[in-house]
């Protein structure tokens, strides 16, 4: 069955939020979150044959980055590298036989490929955001529906999702992926949401670490490999804390929302709050969910029309801009890659006449 976008209007959005598909996805995410409560990345977890096969698929995808290097390394454009499209094309070509080799897809290969390939960003715009991240969760969700995954093991987060984020960092760094619908300083991260949601759960029962610990650079440096939330902070610090003059900027300056969240009384409060925020700011936002596709494994909510708008009703991103978007929503405003901005700063420091 071909995957199709179905959510175009605010009425569609309301039906989506009140649907079994929405509730099933939230339940799945919460189960994954709960599975890693108190568990650092280094925890030894049971690795089923299926989990090992998913990791092999992800390893093959990461190899495609190496096979499609950036040719114009000296191109100083602050926007995405066009070689990303070559990577994307190879992944789309390689995935169908690879998934069928690894799993009994029960004739649903196209749906699995659709979610997994889309989880690495948009080929045309060369961007990436929390909506693409949702596609990876939908890929795992569909594997569960096919009974390829039979339990919400911690390995799905500590091994599989962690590997996925590692690949995304590789892609972002290599091809300078632009943030899709970035909220600028008013978002958690230019690219991700779910590492914060799962990462807060990892820290929820920590006996010593407190939310304000994210401001302790030495502590973040020491533990970022063990906790996803701290890895996100470490990543942000590595590309956003230095100005052209070398001045260090605090989270309060470039990531005020993370700074505000750090004042919470406990990581458990943050864990709970992240689920509420995921519902409101990701799955409850039309500019994000209008990109979600439905098929036979993840079904479209009842009552939503099979829209047949003409091409004139759409823009180049392939959906309808029915409402007036706020700053940075959706894809109407191009935002330079954070990696590009960081690299440009390094380049400028070596210009003798600057």
Automatic annotation (TrEMBL):
Q: Which InterPro entries match?
A: Phstyr_phstse_ac (IPR004327), PTPA_C_lid (IPR043170), PTPA_sf (IPR037218)
Q: Which CDD domains match?
A: PTPA (cd04087)
Q: Does the keyword Isomerase apply?
A: yes
The cellular location(s) given in this protein's UniProt record come to:
Cytoplasm
- Tell me what reaction this enzyme catalyses: [protein]-peptidylproline (omega=180) = [protein]-peptidylproline (omega=0)
Q: Does the keyword Isomerase apply?
A: yes
**E.C. no:** 5.2.1.8
User: Which family, according to UniProt?
Assistant: Belongs to the PTPA-type PPIase family.
What function is annotated for this protein? PPIases accelerate the folding of proteins. It catalyzes the cis-trans isomerization of proline imidic peptide bonds in oligopeptides.
List the protein's name. Answer: Serine/threonine-protein phosphatase 2A activator
Q: Which organism is it from?
A: [Candida] anglica
């Amino acid at each position: 069955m071909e995957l199709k976008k179905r959510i175009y209007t605010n009425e569609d959005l309301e039906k989506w939020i009140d649907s079994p598909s929405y509730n099933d996805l939230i339940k799945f995410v919460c189960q994954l979150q709960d599975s890693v409560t108190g568990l650092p990345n280094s925890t030894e977890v049971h690795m089923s044959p299926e989990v090992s096969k998913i990791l092999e698929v992800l390893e093959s995808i990461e190899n495609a980055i190496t096979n499609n290097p950036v040719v114009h390394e000296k191109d100083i454009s602050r926007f995405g590298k066009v070689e990303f499209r070559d990577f994307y094309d190879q992944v789309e070509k390689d995935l169908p036989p690879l998934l069928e080799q690894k799993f009994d897809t029960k004739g649903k290969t196209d749906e699995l490929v659709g979610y997994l390939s889309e989880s690495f960003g948009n080929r045309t715009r060369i961007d990436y955001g929390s909506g693409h991240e949702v596609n990876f969760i939908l890929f795992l969700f569909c594997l569960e529906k096919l009974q390829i995954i039979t339990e919400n093991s911690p390995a799905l987060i500590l091994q599989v999702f962690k590997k996925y984020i590692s690949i995304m960092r590789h892609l972002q760094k290599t091809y300078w992926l632009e943030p899709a619908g970035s909220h600028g300083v008013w978002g958690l991260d230019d690219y991700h949401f779910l590492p914060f949601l799962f990462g807060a759960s990892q820290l929820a029962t920590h006996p010593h670490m407190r939310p304000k610990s994210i401001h302790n650079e030495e502590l973040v440096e020491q533990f970022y490999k063990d906790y996803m939330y701290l890895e996100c902070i470490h990543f942000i610090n590595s590309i956003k804390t230095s100005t052209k003059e070398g001045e260090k900027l605090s989270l309060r300056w470039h990531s005020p929302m993370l700074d505000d969240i750090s004042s919470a009384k406990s990581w458990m409060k943050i864990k709970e709050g992240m689920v509420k925020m995921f519902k409101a700011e990701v799955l409850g936002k039309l500019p994000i969910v209008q990109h979600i596709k439905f098929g036979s494994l993840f079904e479209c909510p009842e009552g939503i029309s099979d829209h047949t708008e003409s091409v004139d009703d759409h823009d180049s991103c392939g959906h309808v801009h029915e409402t007036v978007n706020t700053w940075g929503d959706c894809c109407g405003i191009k935002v330079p890659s954070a990696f590009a901005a960081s690299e440009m700063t390094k380049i400028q420091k070596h210009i003798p006449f600057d």
